Amino acid sequence: MPLTLAEAGEENIIRKIGGKQEIRAHLENLGFVVGGTVTVISVVGGNVIVNVKDSRVAVSREMAQKIMV
User: Fold this and answer.
1) How far is residue 4's CA from residue 22's CA, in Å, rounded to a whole number?
2) How far apart are CA 44 and CA 20, in angstroms?
3) For residues 38 and 50, is the Cβ–Cβ distance under 8 A?
4) What is the maximal distance between C-alpha atoms in the chain?
5) Quick one: CA dihedral 58, 48, 64, 31, positive or negative?
6) Mean pLDDT, each 10-residue run in order, the chain (69 residues)
7) SS3 category, 36
């Protein structure tokens, strides 16, 4: 399921990252790697705030749709 459907506070394992190569590289630089864990903190106006690799990161709804957990 895409990250946008994950419950807040629930730890999820990243299964797949879709999109073009430059989008995947950008997300990887932010810490989104396959096999890594990600926790949704909150959803604000469609944007998703997550905890990944001990950092809080805000990603747009479009980016979050490409991250499968």
Assistant:
1) 21
2) 25
3) yes
4) 29
5) positive
6) 92 95 93 95 92 94 95
7) coil
